[in-house]
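Structure request: DNA-binding protein, Bradyrhizobium australiense.
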Amino acid sequence: MKSKRIGADDEAHVHVVILDTGEEAFAALTRFAAESGISAASLTAIGAFERATVGWFDVAAKSYRKIEVDEQCEVLSAIGDVAAGDDGKPSLHVHVVLGLADGSTRGGHLLAATVRPTLEAILTEAPAALRRKKRPDLGIALIDLEVGGG
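Returned structure:
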């Protein structure tokens, strides 16, 4: 992984993060956010994976149904955010649309993915803290503006 902060002002810091072949995307981006002290950011990315696991959230079961994509795929769109979790560590929430060789797509919540050949991510850090809080009624953690630090 390589990264570079390409912009900064009083309102935002912009980071470009480039992941290389073989890196696990979700873990690498989470690690970057932790090492950079990012507690509030938006995220976009494009690139490709050699395989990925996305999830569809089943509200009734309060869990993700895993959708395995065991083939090379293009990251047509990745969009998400970073907020501090209940443990104080960065928590990513990323949705992806993946393009397959036949032109069809798969999409959902990014759970895991192996990069091949690259993933180019832009994180725009906000000058505030956001907090993601576990919602037992839903079974997931969502941003809670009442407990945010900013």
